[in-house]
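Request from the bench team (R.T.):
"We need a structural guess for the complex before ordering more adenosine-5'-triphosphate. Sequence and SMILES attached. Just send the tokens back."

Command: build protein-adenosine-5'-triphosphate structure.
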Amino acid sequence: MDQAEQLRNIIKTKQLRRKSSARVLTITSGKGGVGKSNVSINLGIQLQKMGKKVLILDADFGLANVEVLFGAIPQYTLRDVIEGKKSLEDTITKGPLDIQFISGGTGVEGMANLNKVQLTNLLRNIPKLDALADVIIIDTGAGISDSVLEFVAAGSEVLLVSTPEPTSLTDAYSLLKSLYHYDGFSKQDTKIRIIANRVSNTIEGKNLHKKLNIVSEKFLGLSLDYLGSVPIDDQLVKAVMAQSPVTISYPKARSSKAFEQLAMDLLKENTEETEKRKSLSQIFQSFFQTNSK
Ligand SMILES: Nc1ncnc2c1ncn2[C@@H]1O[C@H](COP(=O)(O)OP(=O)(O)OP(=O)(O)O)[C@@H](O)[C@H]1O
Ligand SMILES: [Mg+2]
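Reply to R.T.: structure attached below.
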């Protein structure tokens, strides 16, 4: 090994060991409407209750899911950052329990269409978020569009939400397949965990993971971990209607307890994995490098 190579290896190791200030969880799904936004906000609330400082980034651009579920009205959104009117920190809105969130705005056509000036405006601000939270949750849109895949491929911790419906499972598999073939996705650097939502019982959730994992391992060589399940719950539906997270309105509801368990399991991670995590700025950097080529 020559000196230059040694130096490169040292830098690489240091980069890997670099402890990011925030842990980034990317929430996604194959099919729409399976519960991503509810998982994002309720997992966020439970983590916040456990003393973590949480920030939710609504990356389902244009649909404003998170603010609607929080019943909050943001003064500024990512659109203001893109247009250079505000810094990213100015767009942080407080939800229940003072949870922080950033609205993707309404009518944003998709980040891939941004011009260079708009990209620079966003990029310049993004690394600052790392210092503002312990956990950053990114609620992506559903499906296999490029901007969703880009977020998922860039994130080191992905939570893939599926319901037991056959169409949700096949769509989850399609997303994994597209991800596997996506430039910039690395099997080794990405941990994919399944969350089974709207299950009748815990066994149904475990079976969902088993089925998905079998095909994923067989055809893609991709192993999926299992985080856990959330039961089908009328109180969650009521909470959605009332625009208040179930974990706030009905903390004792079946789904609230499940979100609490998921949050506890997420916090059990060992330090070695913690050190390997990508920071939010690294995630966004790869996003924009690909899109500005
Ligand atoms: N555990 C659950 N029990 C009962 N109903 C649920 C549950 N999870 C989600 N739902 C229902 O599904 C609806 C859609 O949930 P949510 O908005 O979280 O999905 P999404 O994946 O973010 O959708 P989209 O892809 O449109 O952004 C909720 O409004 C609620 O009615
Ligand atoms: Mg949503």
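Two things stood out. Residues 21-287 form a domain with the Rossmann fold fold (CATH 3.40.50.300). Residues 36-37, 60, 65 surround magnesium ion (ligand 2) (CB under 6 Å).
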